[in-house]
Amino acid sequence: MDSRKAIKKLLADVRRGKVSPRKAFASLKDLPFKNLNFARLDYHRCIRKGFGEAVYCEGKSPEHIKKIVRDISGKRGYILLTRAGKKLYDYLKKDFPFLKYNECARIIYEDKLPRKSNKIVLILAAGTSDIPVAEEAKATLEVMGNRVKTAYDVGVAGIHRLFDKMSEISAANVIIVVAGMEGALASVVAGLTDKPVVAVPTSIGYGASFKGIAPLLTMMNSCAPGVTVVNIDNGFGAGYFASLVNK
Amino acid sequence: MDSRKAIKKLLADVRRGKVSPRKAFASLKDLPFKNLNFARLDYHRCIRKGFGEAVYCEGKSPEHIKKIVRDISGKRGYILLTRAGKKLYDYLKKDFPFLKYNECARIIYEDKLPRKSNKIVLILAAGTSDIPVAEEAKATLEVMGNRVKTAYDVGVAGIHRLFDKMSEISAANVIIVVAGMEGALASVVAGLTDKPVVAVPTSIGYGASFKGIAPLLTMMNSCAPGVTVVNIDNGFGAGYFASLVNK
Amino acid sequence: MDSRKAIKKLLADVRRGKVSPRKAFASLKDLPFKNLNFARLDYHRCIRKGFGEAVYCEGKSPEHIKKIVRDISGKRGYILLTRAGKKLYDYLKKDFPFLKYNECARIIYEDKLPRKSNKIVLILAAGTSDIPVAEEAKATLEVMGNRVKTAYDVGVAGIHRLFDKMSEISAANVIIVVAGMEGALASVVAGLTDKPVVAVPTSIGYGASFKGIAPLLTMMNSCAPGVTVVNIDNGFGAGYFASLVNK
Amino acid sequence: MDSRKAIKKLLADVRRGKVSPRKAFASLKDLPFKNLNFARLDYHRCIRKGFGEAVYCEGKSPEHIKKIVRDISGKRGYILLTRAGKKLYDYLKKDFPFLKYNECARIIYEDKLPRKSNKIVLILAAGTSDIPVAEEAKATLEVMGNRVKTAYDVGVAGIHRLFDKMSEISAANVIIVVAGMEGALASVVAGLTDKPVVAVPTSIGYGASFKGIAPLLTMMNSCAPGVTVVNIDNGFGAGYFASLVNK
Amino acid sequence: MDSRKAIKKLLADVRRGKVSPRKAFASLKDLPFKNLNFARLDYHRCIRKGFGEAVYCEGKSPEHIKKIVRDISGKRGYILLTRAGKKLYDYLKKDFPFLKYNECARIIYEDKLPRKSNKIVLILAAGTSDIPVAEEAKATLEVMGNRVKTAYDVGVAGIHRLFDKMSEISAANVIIVVAGMEGALASVVAGLTDKPVVAVPTSIGYGASFKGIAPLLTMMNSCAPGVTVVNIDNGFGAGYFASLVNK
Amino acid sequence: MDSRKAIKKLLADVRRGKVSPRKAFASLKDLPFKNLNFARLDYHRCIRKGFGEAVYCEGKSPEHIKKIVRDISGKRGYILLTRAGKKLYDYLKKDFPFLKYNECARIIYEDKLPRKSNKIVLILAAGTSDIPVAEEAKATLEVMGNRVKTAYDVGVAGIHRLFDKMSEISAANVIIVVAGMEGALASVVAGLTDKPVVAVPTSIGYGASFKGIAPLLTMMNSCAPGVTVVNIDNGFGAGYFASLVNK
Amino acid sequence: MDSRKAIKKLLADVRRGKVSPRKAFASLKDLPFKNLNFARLDYHRCIRKGFGEAVYCEGKSPEHIKKIVRDISGKRGYILLTRAGKKLYDYLKKDFPFLKYNECARIIYEDKLPRKSNKIVLILAAGTSDIPVAEEAKATLEVMGNRVKTAYDVGVAGIHRLFDKMSEISAANVIIVVAGMEGALASVVAGLTDKPVVAVPTSIGYGASFKGIAPLLTMMNSCAPGVTVVNIDNGFGAGYFASLVNK
Amino acid sequence: MDSRKAIKKLLADVRRGKVSPRKAFASLKDLPFKNLNFARLDYHRCIRKGFGEAVYCEGKSPEHIKKIVRDISGKRGYILLTRAGKKLYDYLKKDFPFLKYNECARIIYEDKLPRKSNKIVLILAAGTSDIPVAEEAKATLEVMGNRVKTAYDVGVAGIHRLFDKMSEISAANVIIVVAGMEGALASVVAGLTDKPVVAVPTSIGYGASFKGIAPLLTMMNSCAPGVTVVNIDNGFGAGYFASLVNK
After folding, report:
1. d(Cα E158, Cα G189) in Å, to the nearest integer?
2. CB-count exposure of residue G41 (10 Å: 0-12, 13-18, 19+)
3. pTM for this structure?
4. CA A81, CA A61: separation in Å to the nearest integer?
5. F48, exposed or middle or buried, with CB in 10 Å at 0-12, 13-18, 19+?
6. Nearest to H157 among C158, C191, C220 (CB)
7. Strand partners of residue D194
8. For B232, E176, F215, G114, which has the most beta carbons within 10 A of its beta carbon?
């Protein structure tokens, strides 16, 4: 129910004596944020119920993460842990046997949402070294209930391999391009399609790739329009965004 | 018709003597690219017929731009010229009286596409100085046939102004956030909504804003997921991408 | 009156029939933000009533600024325009004859607040070229009702000039240090005093000063504790912050 | 006693034959700096007596640190060791059993100063990973005799958590904001309060956060005035500065 | 045979009934890329047959690399593995006993191409620490069938050592200059010869060499024309390019 | 004649009394450098006789340049002036009527060398704004006696335009790729050919293209081998290098 | 007289009743700084009397500079104004007819110091565009009383021109190397001599020279020891330092 | 003997038949470089004989270094190994028992040169963490025969500690300033003396010190003239340069 309507009803109830001013005050106390969060209720349902709260695990202690998982579970939220090692999974599994693990994507999750639609998110990765980031995007998308296809090792050094995927590109609703080194794949793909392209620079490379700055700049400056960029190695962010678009 | 079918039919016709090998060769000559562009035909219709070819005018001479406009017109494509001054418009108008001008957005265009749907793209700008970039995004979206709403001067320095726009945020299908200086608006908005947020850093600011690098990094590192980023001041790119998503 | 009390009273009035639910709803509608801004009311009084809304003028058209000034005046707010040229002042003066101008500080303002206390903010500038930034800080402080002293050209190249100011340094409540080139003055001053030092790097210098990055980094890395830093050339920000501290 | 008075008395004593010129010379020998430090005496009392000399331990050998601690103890100064591991503490404790340890803040200290006033320094941390830096600020403040409150995990991704802390924000005298990733929290808080905000960027994040450069720039460019910035991860520096302001 | 001719012949054969339309279609299916790759056929022969596919091993697991090697072998391609450790070689050797190893160059390869010509590629390295990168270039060149000479430790700090190599410089067809620290050797060599100079900056150095940025910029800005630059430490890239030129 | 032979002959002549020791000494005086330049004689012939000495005109006064031209003419060297405006040409033409001007390339030159061979250097430019840099490369190549072909506006945003040029790519001996914005064209071309690719990043673009840094990094990190890079906007350098390769 | 002795004598005089405590106090009051500046007296004589106070004119108004010149003149100090245009000189000359001007060096000065010694400072400039910076160094040196020789256009692109200057290099006591673009000259010269080399990077160049960063890094990383570096374009600083060394 | 005279004599001998043309040619063959190195002979004596060849050990294998030491010993040159660990020393000592080790400076050397003069090089270090770099400079200077004094922990945070060293500063001939963090010490010292100051930035610090970039920029931009800078942590370079100056 609309919070405006809720307030009107509450006031009428107060007027009619059905609700005491004191009780009404208690109800109103939280209204500012409830009202604020108005638009976020659905969102919260999605975040907290859908695929749970995403937790970036790097640099957090296993004990700390266990506590967070317990909190989310207590609120009956689903769970998505990114950058999670096998060891962490083994540690958490003892207490939370329902958790699952995707080792390549380094993602721990509770369960996948039921598939919402048949629209496809296509993930293209330029090189084999970019696969872990691509898999993080894929796992995020699947946990959030999307249908995903992937094509790896389709970088521009051998552009015929990309062209072999033209029908997949045509069939996709959103495309994620994962590329390190010079990151040219994003521009090339955006030039071949009218689907939104979410580009993920990776830290793959050496020297003047500057741990991902080179592909980040490349993607930022794409001469083909239709490309937006997320942080370096941020497969989760790309997957999350693509899922919002894919809805 | 599917190019594979086209080839099969052609071969059958050759076999049956309905098409000479020479003629068949001429038809096949362009097939590689036709085949390639398969997926792109719709896209091309959109690009070339829809809102025309986008031309970035800065640093191009008026004569050069006139030539490009003539070329596009000749192919019966629509036109979108970005970063175009009033002077350029006056110059082009003589030869192409059908051109229209949006001075704040610095965009010259031929015509707007018919509105495709009622889904709204909401554009939020942090400060009044960010408005020209926001307007470039808006004009691009409208020319491409989208419904657009805007809310300007809603930066985080006076966050209540942003909260006054909660219902607009709830109602939008895609949100573009335009912000310079520290660019914090993108994170805050992404924390309030489950709609995809396309962030545009602007070069507004001085000193350590480094002509837009500060907000670009801020947006890249958004602690709230659901944000992707385009190039500094790239209102056109954000509008174009949002239009692809909004379809 | 406390907004919580206000709500309670309102609810009691509704209950008693003194206020209709509809009218009560209208009152409540803005409560979320009023409530939110609870803590900000004093602040707003200070911002909006005290020295008015600060407007950064660079890159805004005179017409635009005139409109902003009119808006603020309409709300009976005081005015502080930074980075304002003489020309702009002459332009605005016609319509707003009450405006005053500090040419060196490039600040247009309505009136100074009555002096709040006798606590002194001391502004030290390393070189004569840093004076405009120092004067911006000074003007901001004075408009906000602070007592200010200055000592210019006391950079570390001739450190005896700084030591001549030891008694002023002792007497100050807050110290602003303005320095370009290598910006070493902030560390040296922080090593000599137990007062908070607000450091302002300036874009004075050339070559490897990189338009203020060198002094910014110097100040960030001060080996003497007690230093915080604002943006390059941001005299207003330093003055504003020092005024908050000086209260 | 004032050094000027001290000199006058000394000279009178010489005149009266109570002090020999030789002894007087010995006393005067140090006067230049004593005189210089005139203003710094109180400061020194604070630094050397109050919470002792702050020593940054990273990269120093345990033996070296033990020697420093012995020197300070010999002068009856109090001690504050930052970035100190548990191992170092165990090592030092054998010789200096009076030392205490705050493991989360990684701070070794001798004793806390008696609380000077009831004015509160509020420390806000955006994420749970920012807590160690926040705790370093807190421990520094407490050792220096300040009253401290904290609110962690109040980043802008879930801005309602921040708004839940509005009363704490209202009640504070100085606010420290600790944030990594995009660091937007500082701007948002400064927009909500008229208290001075000391911002600490942290190196939390990855990719384009560039080990803290992203939040540093964000904080530097805060669109809300009233923010100053210390070095990346410098919880001690923020606490020290806030303590100077809080006096 | 020219693919155009191939198509014409195929069509004639269809016409004459020598080839069925179905079989012709199967042949044509790959034609787009075959046609596209027209120019690349020779190239592919060179890449795939000549020295095999180059694989950058850093960050790839031994199992992954073994799989790649098996794939290439299956297609009867030759192999070149760069940045390969001794351990990896020992691991691969068990399954692929025909593999050879150049430890200094850290390159695993199958076999060298027969020497194509007597034209010499000369590799100059500024310091002894630059030798591994130089050796990577050398091994790449030799595997690709080039004649190579080297002169190491000829940096500009002792320029007479370089001049002792004037006759080798005169006799070379292409020159590769490998240098770290300040990278001045490339400019000096380019000033002494009219042969194309391919410059490889190395990450040798410390402090302001910024892991190779300093020599990269030096080489980019060579005041002597005739220099092009590859990525930092990219000995393979320089060797590969020089081999293309040397053909 | 070989300088070694020259010395031997000279010594024989001294022995035979045909040349006096004094005269011989005068001849020998310059021999060290002549000898040094041994390898460079041909080169010098090429540089000084072939297309003259290349002079970068930006930032030099017309008077200064006139003096340089006179010097070179006096030595009967040919002339190549880069970054030269029309005004400069008009100024120089009065005194040196034999000079010619290529306005698009902004190059003043004396005469073209006779074509040395029929091997083609192909210049590809990604966008129309990159043409001036491409033309600088072309003019340099032609003055140095090379056969040049160009294909402009073949950027990856519309990759079919590039594929239309496959036969030109196949026919070239060396390829120069000129591209700004994200510079992806170099990688794509290198993936399509086995010819050496010389990449020229241009300063075309805005925001995060950082005046050419983005395409420079892209080209440096090309995932396809066979690419080397020259300085931003350095069409001359690319042309010069390609000419050395093409010989 | 030594300030220690002065104090002892003063105390004895007080003791003996020759000086009153009050008068003694007045004398002592300034002693801290006198004592401090002890070492600086000679220096000051040099700075203030020798070649006057150096004033960097860029960004200062003519009126401001006139005031500074008057101040220095009043103290009978000599004057050195750097980065001074012809216009400024004409303006100052009216009031200070004794001023002289070096247009190429853009330096205004009062008079040259008498030559102190015959030791030579040699200034080498790589290109003709570096000459103004070299001339600034030269003028500074001459005003400070040094003997200076110069050799311009001796960059490493034509290294024989540098070798023609070997005898000058041998004869110098200190060498200043001025170079833009890649700045390799400093390393080469340091490899040829055992004299201290002071390197001045210049902002000459374009693209990846980044306004002098490239040569600055080159010089910082010189593989030949014996090189120190001053700021970009800082001819004055190099001349000043070389003069200190040359004394 | 002068090489010019040598050539003249040789030619006369050829003329007179005392030397055959063939023999004369052999003599002349090396003359270019002999002549070139003319000026370098003294230098070489200094480098090779004086303190031997300096070898940077980091990243070189012990075996490699042993070979270099053997080479230098064979030529009867002295030895200076920088960045050398204790382990390396123990390894080398077995074969070269005459080697000595300075553990703090991490320098291995053969012997110190006899003291050349009594002129003092003073080394100031800002913090205790800067001492290893300062000691590297000191050891280099002593091996090269200089008299050295040091004063450590005299950073600007407690500037009185620096002023206690005024007499040492006055007495020095050259001053080396070693400082990390913000590096302000160099400017302050240069403001107090007229001796040349060689500044060494160190990588001490964290966050925005960027591993030494902050102090490097500070030192580059010193507002007090008389400062030149060497690479980050380059104690050897500073010592070597100071030794050249001190001669």
Report:
1. 10
2. exposed
3. 0.85
4. 13
5. middle
6. C191
7. none
8. F215
Dist. CA D210–CA D222, nearest whole Å: 19
- The tokens for B230 are 């385009």
Instruction: Determine how β-strand F107-109 pairs with β-strand F100-102.
Output: antiparallel
Contact C160 G36 (CB under 8 A): yes
Asked whether the beta carbons of G213 and E217 are under 8 A apart, the reply is yes
Q: Minimal CA–CA distance to A234: which of A205, A202, A204, A212? A: A202
Q: Which residues contact B194 (CB under 8 A, 6 or more apart)?
A: A40, A42, A43, A46, A47, A244, B226
CB-based contact H101:H86 (threshold 8 Å):
yes
**For residue C61, what are the contacts with CB-CB under 8 A and spacing of at least 6?**
none
Report the Cα H178 to chain-centroid distance in Å: 15
Interface list for chain D against chain B, based on CB atoms closer than 8 Å? 126-127, 155-159, 181-184, 187-188, 190-192, 205, 207-210, 213-215, 217-225
pLDDT in tens, A84-127: 999 999 999 999 999 999 998 999 998 776 777 789 999 999 98
Contact C237 D230 (CB under 8 A): no
Residue appearing with tokens 């991704």: D157
Residue that wins the pLDDT comparison between C73 and A75: C73
Q: Residue B79's closest CA among B50, B104, B45?
A: B50
Give the Cβ contact number of residue F68 at 10 Å: 17
G181-204 b/e (C-beta count within 10 Å ≥ 16 → b): bbbbbbbbbbbbbbbbbbbbbbbb
Token readout for H164 is: 């206690």
CA D59 to chain CA mean position, Å: 20
Give the nearest chain F residue to A156 (CA atoms): F188
Sign of CA dihedral H204, H206, H211, H212: negative
How many other C-beta atoms are found inside a 10 Å radius of the C-beta of residue D49?
A: 13
What per-residue string of b and e applies to D200-225 under the rule 16 or more CB within 10 Å gives b? bbbbbbbbbbbbbbbbbbbbbbbbbb
H/E segment holding residue B42: helix B31-44
The three-state (H, E, C) secondary structure of B108-124, written as one string = EECCCCCCCCCCEEEEE
| F206 contacts A217 by C-beta, under 8 angstroms | no
Least confident of A72-81, D157-166, E136-145, H92-101: A72-81
pLDDT at G77: 57
Q: How far from each other are the two terminal CA atoms of chain B, in whole angstroms?
A: 24
Pairwise CA distance, residues D195 & D173, whole Å:
6
Q: What is the pLDDT of residue C23?
A: 82
Option in D38, D192, D240 nearest C170 (CB): D38
Look at residues B245, B246, B231, B243 and name the one whose alpha carbon lies nearest to residue B47: B243
Distance CA E181, CA E159 (A): 16
Chain E residues closer than 8 Å to A206 by CB: 58, 231-233
CA distance B61 to G85: 35
What are phi and psi for residue C146, nearest 5 degrees?
Answer: -105, 155
Q: Is H211 left (phi over 0), alpha (psi -120 to 50) or beta?
A: left
CB contact under 8 A, B209 and D217: yes
ipTM (interface predicted TM): 0.81
- Give SS3 for A40: helix
Tokens 């040159």 locate to H77
H153-162 mean pLDDT = 82
Q: Does residue C83 sit in helix, strand or coil?
A: coil
**Measured distance CA(G222)–CA(E182) in Å, rounded:** 5
In the structure encoding, which two tokens stand for residue A174, read together? 């959103």
Q: Which of F4, F21, F35 is nearest residue H15 as measured by Cβ atoms?
A: F21
